[in-house]
Structures are given as C-alpha cells and as structure tokens.
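Hey, I'm writing a tutorial for new members on how sequence and structure tokens pair up, and I'd like a real worked example in the thread rather than a made-up one. If someone can provide the structure for the chain below, I'll link this post from the tutorial.
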Amino acid sequence: MSAAAAAPRAADLVRWEDADRTARPERLARLRARMVAEGVDAYFGVRPEHMRYLTGFRLDDGEEKVAGHSGQFLVAAEDLVVLADSRYTIKAARQASAARVEPIASDLAVAWSSLVASVGARRIAVEAGFVSYALWERLASAAPDVELVAASGWIERDRVVKEPAELERVAAACGVADRALDSLLPAIRPGVTERELAWQLEVLIRRPGSGAEALAFDVAALFGPEAALPHGAPGDRPIAPGSVLLFDFGAQVAGYRSDMTRTLFVGEPSARDLAVYETVARAQAAAVAVLESVVRGERPVPTGREIDAVARGVIEADGRWAAYGHGLGHGIGLATHEAPSLGRSAASDAPLPSPTVFSVEPGIYLDGEMGVRIEDLVLFDAGGDGRPGRLEQLTNFPRGVLIVG
C-alpha cells in the first residue's frame, strides 16, 4: 500500500483546535458580511457542522439525535449565542468560549421572543432546509414582529474552501481508512458474511491508536449482486469465490471525514467482471487527468458538470454498460456530503473552487449481477495569488485489481 497519512498525535489535535479558534473570527466576519448584503439582522443555524465551524460547540457521535436544540446558534452583528439545555451547558461554555451560552428547554418557541429581542433582531435568516415547517410556524407565531427569511447555502459556500488545518484532518481520516482496509484483507475468506466484515472494518477504524474518533458513516460491505446497490447495507450473506466485494466506508478525525470505495475480487475475476472494473478505472483516471492538466496550467478550471461528463463519457463511449446514475463526486469535510458537487444536475455552473476536497467515484451497476465503484478523495487547488497548483489523492489504498480470499 502507498504511504498513508500518519495517525494524528495529541499535538496535532491541539494544533488543529488552535487553528479553528484562530479562524472563527474571520469565518463569522464572512457570515456577517453576507447578512448585511442580504439585509438581515441575525442568522439562526441548526446544522451540527455549522455549529462546530462557527462556534466550536460539537456533538459527539450520535448525539445529534438526542441533543434537541442544544448547539443551535444565533449570530448577530455584535452577538454570538449558543443554545444549550442542562445536559450541555458546561460543555458549551468550554467549547464555545467566545459565545454567550443561553439556557434552553425542550421548546424553542417559548424562548424565541426573548432570545431574538436580546440581540435586537427584527429580520432573521434561518437554515430553512433543516428546520421543520411546524417549528418555522411556531417561531413565526412566537415573535410575530420578527420576519423569518429562508437561507440556503450561505455557510456551505464558505466552508467549501478549506483551510490548511482542515485539509490535514481530511488527509488524516483517509489514512485511518487506508490502514483499516489493509488490515482487514486477511479476514476476507469464503463463508464470512457481509455483516461480519463490516463489523471488523468498523472495529479496525475505531481501535485505540487509529486516530479516529468515529466512523464518517456506517460501513457498507456488499457482495456479488448486492454490489449493484450504490448505497446498500451489509446483511448475513456469506461471500463465495467468483464475484466482487464492495466496501464503502470512512473515518472521522477531529470532526473531519474521509470516504473511500474499493471493489475487490473474491477469487479470480471473470472476463466480464474484470472488463467492468477496468472501464470504471479508466473513467476515474480520465477525470483525474483533467484535474492534473488544470494544476499544470494547461486548461481553465472546469465545472463539476464538466468533470462528471469526462468520466461518464468514457463509460458511454465503451458502450457495453450504462454509466452510474449518481454524480461523479461530492465535497467532504465536517459533513460527508457537502459542496462542491460533481454531477449532471446538482453541480454549480461555476468553476470548481479551491483549495477544496472532493470525491471522484464513477461506477457501473448491473442489477442482479454485480457492481463496481472506485472512489478516491482528491485535494484540488488550482493555484493563483502566488499559490502553486496542487492535486493530491488523499486515499492511498491500491486502486488496481485486487484478488482476495
């Protein structure tokens, strides 16, 4: 296996925490500038990744399901308020030290009027895509003199450009995943089930000393026909020689995530399965080659749609199998799926931002038979402003044909 990023040390965690603390005032300044431009007095945020990015408050693995309104925040021109119920007030005071921690019970609407009055807001942007219609209506009724404005993508567009410490954490998470899959290989043998392999891979990611604090998302281990499900779940199906075994998984390090897919062969592959794999590999290589030409200064920065079209075109030109129905890739960072998008519909018409990280993951899926996807994360920086161009593949587990079992 190629050299993977080293497991983070305690000093790295401290350095990354310091980098975030130093960056937050500028992150907040960019949001406040957007608020002025949009004519709003405050911004109400609810997404866990936005909480961490702007305030420092973070929910541990799985806590978002039970935290209620804790960690949600209100940004005004001169105020930063973090909500916390009694379970989280101490934690919020420690982690969001630059914010005022406002005690909150289970019913936000009860406290809403006094909360918005405390920051002098009459027009508030709300992350509407993540607030239920019922809560929106209750907040509007609780403070009828305050106008709620739907906001979408404000912080996401800021987060798409990654700071150096963010890039380091994504790379470290990729290193955890690389080592975990490499360690799993001896356990792959006929008779072991998808569920057993998924669990063993999860243990390897979470084991002491790995550097991971959590999974990025649940592990997918899919054998044979199940590999044709782009987002399937492992079951009790035992693997047997003569088909593919697809893993889709990632680690989380200091809040930042990785995402990798590898399709392995259990025993010698058939000619058809090998041809499918090689076609997918050529599609991925073609997309990466375009990005390489950009950082060499040989062509302008493409859009996500254009990169998707390059990879899709390789599969379509081959003509034997239909190309993937999903997008070629997605951004990653504090969330597993974030901007930028590389796809036919969701991608922006603007050139790819940089520096950023996104996946390149073409696939071919044959219903009832097999599926192949190869997914890698790439760090893309087109350069400029005295900064040289850079393209680095952060996932380093081998991409070639690999026979196991």
